[in-house]
Amino acid sequence: METAGPFAALAKRKAEEASGGAAPAADTQAVPAPTDAATTAAVRETSSDTTQVWGVNVNNLDWSYPNIDGTPIDGQEPLIKGMDLKLAPGSCCLLLGANGAGKTTLLKILGGKHMVPKDKVLIHGREAFYDTGLTTSGQLSYIGGNWQRDVAFAGYGVTLAGDFPARQMLDSIPNVDPERKARIIDVLDIDPEWRMHQVSDGQRRRVQLAYGLMIPYSVLLLDEITVDLDVLGRADLMSFLRRECEERNVTIVYATHIFDGLEQFATHVAFVAGGRLRFCEPLDAIDGLKSREPGSLLDTVQVWLRQEAEAKRKERESAGFVKKKVFEYVRNSGWGEGRMASTVSFGPELGQKHVGMKGSSNAVMRN
Ligand SMILES: Nc1ncnc2c1ncn2[C@@H]1O[C@H](COP(=O)(O)OP(=O)(O)OP(=O)(O)O)[C@@H](O)[C@H]1O
């Protein structure tokens, strides 16, 4: 068990408050270690009402990416470990953590894009993966990554482009409230006549966002969607989203590394490290953030990340673990995220030089 980390401070304060003891002085620069007890305490507080229908409800979830042939990897520790996350409708939660912490993976799980055991991930009480009506109705909306599509003979994940206007994309969504549509187009400052093969990255992002926001969802999952937006575009979008939480009781989970102006945006902060939820707390309960001063999020999260990195380094050192920088070139069998299909075949039988390799053209490096 780690001995230092961002969540223990919160847990300690809660424990002391609960026992009537004095709360420790606010000190965001000295963030102690995360512990399972800390995580559990944070969750227990928010989940005490069992009759509550949570906007987002993750119950003790363990999850891993499968092997390259789609099967579980023997003996591998789960990527997502003992995850409990409960957010009431109307919560606007920032999902924070280092690169590789598991934010995108968690968002995709919440978005029903990865299969999980039943009852482990519920959106408004409905199964995120099994209840496809959640996404087809638009009640659950996931916006993340670059806008891509799979094009036969061109490959997977081709940037969405084409000689058609943005209007055509937006008009293709059925049963849209015209007022909401006009408002979103206005907030995102979209010219409906933009040709989708001539737009800039930021303009394409705006159309992507408008597309994802058009149906009045009740849960919105956002994965670093403001990277390409200019400052004004980002600020307007953030106030639109905040109003969505306040006026329509929408639950938002937003993973980002860009913190400008988010102090006023969030109701909750969830911090993930190494696939574990270190805490999910109301922003107003976090020392260093409750002032909501501009820049406080960046300062505080930087401390958390440095302490996580340090704890990780110490853990590696104490385990005597030295990562070998040796790579072996392999080709996968065609399994790709969200699909089971072979692409173009490679292998000696086709005359390629990678003797002994068979399967698809989907080459990966493994160590
Ligand atoms: N398709 C995949 N197959 C196997 N492992 C994956 C896959 N996608 C991500 N991972 C691994 O899962 C871990 C978590 O990745 P994830 O993308 O969820 O992190 P993240 O917190 O979103 O990071 P970032 O801030 O860089 O976007 C990483 O160690 C990554 O290598």
TrEMBL record:
Sequence ranges of Low complexity compositional bias: 22-36
Classification via InterPro entries: AAA+_ATPase, ABC_transporter-like_ATP-bd, P-loop_NTPase
GO molecular function, one term: ATP binding
PROSITE patterns recorded: ABC_TRANSPORTER_2
Domain spans labelled ABC transporter: 56-299
Region ranges (Disordered): 1-36
Pfam families according to UniProt: ABC_tran
Keyword terms: ATP-binding, Nucleotide-binding
Protein's UniProt keywords contain NADP: no
Record-linked PANTHER family: ABC TRANSPORTER FAMILY PROTEIN (PTHR43158:SF12), SKFA PEPTIDE EXPORT ATP-BINDING PROTEIN SKFE (PTHR43158)
Protein name: ABC transporter domain-containing protein
Species in which this protein is naturally found: Micromonas commoda (strain RCC299 / NOUM17 / CCMP2709) (Picoplanktonic green alga)
